[in-house]
Amino acid sequence: MPKLSEYKCLNCNGALVFDSKLQKMKCPFCDSSFTVEELSAPDSQLGAGNIEGDSWAQDITPNTWADGETDGLFSYVCRSCGGEIIGDANMAATSCPYCGNPVVVLGAFTGKLKPDYVIPFKLSKDDAISALSRHLQGKRLLPKVFKDENKLKEIKGFYVPFWVFDSELYGNYSYKTTRIHRWSDKYYDYTETKFYDVFREGNISFRSVPIDGSEKFDDMLMESIEPFDFSEAVDFKTAYLAGYLADKFDVNTDISWKRAGTRMANTTQQSFYDTVTGYDSVRQNSGECTVLSKSAKYALFPVWMLSTVWKDKTYTFAMNGQTGKFVGDLPVDKKAAARWLIGLGIGIAAAIFLITLLFI
Fold first, then answer.
1. Which residues are paired to 169 by β-bridges?
2. Taking the domains of the chain in order of start, what are their residue ranges?
3. What's the Rg (C-alpha) of the chain?
4. 155-194, pLDDT tens digit by residue?
5. CA 27 to CA 299: how far, in whole Å?
6. Which pTM was predicted?
């Protein structure tokens, strides 16, 4: 089974990297390209294992690293925050992507579980830089000099660990509803209210619900660049890591399931509620949601992380490396914001004044 360092060009023997545009391994020396399948046989190795401190062990078939498979991988550990990233021996990890500390120590890679799937990068570094430029356009409260004076400090392609959950839930809900009928004759106005008890129950299935498995990546930031199209996921091979960084999961499935389960339960509740139609009022009276089955897969999703510096402050952005969805915080021009609020206040006051005149 090939190690990461053993993915060599079949023409010139140069080290290959994964090209997100071609979706192939490409040689930077002679421009030859190869599919991952052409370079190696499937390298899945199933084995009995256990996730330490995780009661999900019985619900997962662990995918483990084969002997020698991680020899081309190295661990970079930050002395400041303890953050750890995975890359090949040639990866220039000049600073910590989590805290910005420039001191990163190279060490031996020690894997936990081998990922089951990976969504390969479809968008390149140039795509991420272009997306940042578009992100800065049309922001009315952005300081005008920010676009000219902020400098792109760092941009890195990351494979972020995700737990991907499948589950089937049973829901049982009851509702208090009303139908109201109003009519009039020449003497009186009438209102008739009828009250009903409505019940709903059934099963609902969820597929490929992703939860960020890394404490170092902000959960809200990762959720903001969703969705990822899991139908494009492929069986994991170390070749896809060539030229990119990867993070190991440090949030186990027990913790991740709580977030995933809450998402599913809320969706189940809303889905059943939406079926209660044709009434003038609907109020949920009682309800329960039971998990019938659940399973988890360990996957790596592609994310471009960018950081810029302006007035000694670092601004962090993230782009979905599959779809191009781009998010990130920007500075606010306080004077422009004040003018906007004043204008908004004047606009509201004018609207109230016009409405008052209409009534008069």
1. 204, 291
2. 42-70+111-329
3. 27
4. 888 889 899 999 999 999 999 999 999 999 989 999 999 9
5. 26
6. 0.68
